[in-house]
Records
---
Amino acid sequence: MTKKPFLTINQQLDLLKNRGLIIDGDSKHILETEGYYSVVNGYKAPFLDMDESKRHNEDRYKQGTSFNDVYLLFLMDRSLRELTFHYTTKVEAMLKTTCSYCFAEAHQEPNAYLKDENFSTEEQYLEFGLKTYIDDKQKLQSLLYDKKNNSSREPIIHYRNKYNEVPIWILATDLTFGNIEHLYNLMQPNDRKAVCKMVSSITSGDKKHQYIDPINMRKWINTIVKVRNMCAHDERLYCAHIGNRKNINFAGFLLHISHLLTEKDYEDMIDAIVDLVESFSGRSNIISHILDNMGLIPAE
């Protein structure tokens, strides 16, 4: 396979013009600051003339498409990632607190998170719908051991030096959302139930508490962690499909996160998404493409 040659910014602009894209005065600056791959390769799909592209064996854009059209979609998705990231971090903070609290309440001996007996058995792990128990458990405990003994975060250093042990609620300050997901999955069944009960109490407020099934919680956390990481790494979000079967779109993510936010936070999130879509719809003619990919157009 022949590798693609290096192209200067001006050559990139010429290439886009030759493929039918209208270039304006800001296009060069955008390519210089954002990059060709991120903007063009990431967001060109809905603007391509597929018949002409096949005929020429290279990209060809629909007549009248401008570079700014592609860039607007790029900006819209960036804004979607930013507001989505904000709400996933709320869930992350809550789960760090609830998982560490429930684990510490159930296992109060020093450094309890380093002891095998304080986690689920392999049979319980399999019943929870997960595999690779030994490997997953070893990775988690190795991580927790390393954080306890080598973390450079000030609270952990303080507890390590003053008390010669680090409580899990302090250790959790240096864990990622993915680490917390693995901690929850490996907790004993009763500890997972305690997490679910606590989360239900937090999210329900003064209303009657919803029952949260621990397996559903596992699935929701997995979805939210994946979306959170996509936001953090500037991956395309509006048209993403995640999950083992790639069957969860943005609408599916919203359903999952709705269970782990307060009613007000969820309403604020939806309002922000609606405002974003409305502000974009007046500036682009591909809003139906966007809503369809997000799963927000009802099936007929």
---
Amino acid sequence: MNPRFEDFKVTTRVRRLNLWLQILLGILLYAGLNFLAARHYSRWDVSENRRNSLSPESVAYVKNLREPVEIYAVVSMGRNDAESAAIVRDFNTLFRQYEYASNKSAPITARFINAHIENKRAEELAARFGNDLEECVIVASGNRFKRIPILEFYSVEDGARKDFKGESLISSAILNVSTGKDTKIYFLKGHGEMSIKSPNGSRGLSEYASALAARNYKVEELDLSETKDVPEDADMLVIAGAKSTFLPREIDALRKYLLKENGRGVVFLEMGSLLGLEDIFYEWGIMSDDMLILDSGGDYESASGDLIARSFPRKPHPIVKYLIDSGTPVQFGSARPVRPDMGSPIDETLKIFPIILSSPTSWAERSYVRGGLQKYDESSDLIGPLPLAMVATRSAGGDLGLNIPGGKLAVFGDENFIANKWFNRLGNSKLALNVVDWMFEENNMLNIPPRPLKTFSLTLSQGDTISLAWRFLLVPAVALLLCIAVFVARRR
């Protein structure tokens, strides 16, 4: 044996070096195992109904992505209330699932942005995706993106959040931004319609067109008098405030598009004649009387003729769900009733729904043209509440026992609320944009049910808390006493 190792100082140094080497190797082993575990791991979901895992349908979409997808949740995390914490927890759990399911070649990254604290990051998002991003989730891939208000992620019942529809909405948004296909919307012209190119406050739709373009919709104008049929790339047609009668062949082209080609259409009506559209409405079980809706309550401004609509059907349509949850009314101009046509043929493939109503104190005045003081006349007028807008949907493939989505038609009894002057008032823009989103409703193509939210609470009195604390402290206290007893015994 080397005599140097018999030296006490040398031996002490060797032992100290050995100890530090063991500590270093332990740290390296710990770091290496965590490094490998962070990159090569598997997850097993043992929760009830696999609520912490994506559905196989979402996983299939995510695995087949060819481009990276970014998800940003712009939330107000400055509030320390339990509801805000629960919302952040719901989204954080969902985002981790998408990140885990994505592949390395086209990863999904998700993060939260607090607009009140991360000002620079919020400004970058605003420059990229536009303003009004707070309390929204943005799903983006390349130059395409989709914004979803956080309120749309929850089903609310009696003021409490009931279901979380996060997976359905996020998966449909990923599908939308990753397809690369432009959804084209044609606004008809040639009949005095409102123009998407005009900045005019009363007859311009430039604000509406810009909002649609910001949501990846491609907007163009179309003159049906110059074409034989509706273009094949038309995903939806909009008729906004037409003033002159449509030609018979234009009506035939519209009927063919909606019925045979399962097209989508939205009509914003002015007061007066229906300009030949009544035949199309009849086929879709809808009628609109040439009557002006008035209101003896506080929801009607006699000076401007504007009608504030804040009433909805007992079973609300998805188009207006956000308006109901946020308590936001809609400001219409001169509105006419749009109601079911009881004389239209019975069609089992056709379903009709009202989406927004006038108040119970309203009525539809037939002799509105004469002006002056108007009063409800039971013999000629219609008593409220009355539908201000209707949507009709058809299902195709009924003869084969299949339920294939068919055409859709939405008819509004007012065109003013989408004009530049009114577009950003109250809930006008949300209603105008929601009806377009519903027309395409990608999330309905995904068979993903909402996840029920379960909350658990434990109420304890002060005595219960003290009793529970003593029980939790009992085992550590016994262990501590045993350690002291062993230490004293060994000292003796």
---
Amino acid sequence: MNSNWTPAARRLIDKRLWILGYVSEDFQGDLRAIDSLREHSSHIDAYADFAFQLQPDGQFIGQINDLALQEALAQSTAPLILFHNFNGKTFDPQPIRSVLSTPASQRDCIRHMMDLLPDTAAGVHVDFEGVEAPYRIPFLTFLESLKVTLHDRGLLLTIAIPAKRSEREAPGYDFAGIGRLCDLITLMTYDEHFSGGSPGPIASLPWMTETLDYTSLYIPHEKLLLGIPVYGYDWSNEPTAMVSMRDIPELVDQTKARLLWSDQAVEPYFYYWRGHVKHTIWYENELSAKLRLGFVKNYRLRGIAIWRLGYETSRFWQEVTSKLKR
């Protein structure tokens, strides 16, 4: 192991159980994540700031969330800076293709990442989604160089990877290689049904079980964080909308919907009509989240990663503490 970890990185490494929260904004001045970071800091060990978007030239646009950073440092929550390829609508594979295409472009990209890191960061969180099969090996090469660069500075390499149940799914991600190179790994066990697809569970229990069974063949359990969604989707023949866990009760009130429960998915859902338009909502509530937290113990995982801070309720935190932080 590295002996020259920074204090922030060392604190995290020494933690037996991690609770990581993602910090992001849905609109200018969206302070929900910051409020959550402040209010629940005693439970949150690290946060990942959805800060920088990859461009085709290997540069990044975006900025550090200074409010989150100040809040975290005041509460000794470890900051991870997240680098992603989300262009506002979708995770765009084009910048990834271009950065991974040559050793020189990989080096430039890593150099730029280092320039953007604040001194107080505990490490980097890579959220490159939609890596395609031909880039499987170049992606590992990239992660290996990034790891060497970060470890030289005493910083952690952490990553978010898609949940998959077989080698055929998301073939651009070599789980064994990623498990070897990265210090900590969020398994994105959410968006089983996503905004661009047909309605269904956000993270059904059988699906989560299959993804964990597959992942644990390749990735050491002590490096894995279980992705915990605190949201749902509202599907209709209009564009799909995301609904946070904390906003669901009000929507149910407004629409007089009857709450339903899927025993198979172990997740709640409901329907409502607006005019002649039928809406279908699947979502996570405090009970379904509590049942998913059981996976941490069953699979001896390192902890959980919550997408995202500010969507959850205070009752959700009660479940987290009673289930994990005893």
---
Amino acid sequence: MSDSLTRENLRQILVTEQLPAMPQSALSVLKLENDLAKVNINDLVRPIETDPGLAAQVLKFLNSSAFGFSSSISNIRQGIALVGIRIVKNFVLWKAVFSLIPKSKSGTFDVAVLWQDSLRRAMFARYLSQELKCGDAEMAFAGALLQDMSIPLLLKLKPAEYCPVLDALAKSDGERLSHLEQKTFGWDHADVGYVLGQQWKLPELLTHLISSHLEIESIVSNFKQQPETAVVCLSSLLPTVTKDTWDEQDTFRQYFSEIFPNNGRLVSLLFDKVDKEFESAAALLSLQTPKQSLFGYLD
């Protein structure tokens, strides 16, 4: 175990390091209620419109093919009325976090690849949550998208200690990153995600989703009580774009069948849906489409 990175001083390291701060415009939006009836819409519109870059991104999102409106949306207020406050809040959230994550490439790690994986996982979590017909599909999307957000920050803050772990992952035969982190440091990137969620004042449920995404054994067996957590945990088992094979396919199918018994075909349908919608969603984050589709990993 590393002397410089232990679970006991993890929080202190992250707090004392120069972590990027969440933009004030995003914090103002995130603290508002999800129910439009309980919110003064001006309190939501104002912080977005006073940040020209954010306002342009929100309008681009609202006019994307994700919604397919017949006429263009010209202002934030109109868009909120059409899609709802929760969707706009979550978009503001993940754009803010995306802007805070270092855009680095180091050795075997490329943050662009991480975001490709994360976006596919997020879309899968959203669609699976919709199939479950319970829980908050948009929160599941955000949780899956941000589940690995701590990895590039760790790489930037402690490259000498963390680079060898990522190099070992690239050379391993299907071992999980979290297992290597636990063996090396006594904590994993989900633990770091919890600290970051608190530091950035993320919604409590979202922080829970990020910090619990590795706990699939305990979560899936009780998925009806924590539907968002269950789908985010399942999404963490999806294949990475860096490999031609899917190391955790058997594990994924085992847990998927606990939620949807005798419905293995649903996996194919969900993967096909993610593949078809990925390109338009990736454009919002300036991401390339992976060379291999999710559907292509299926046996």
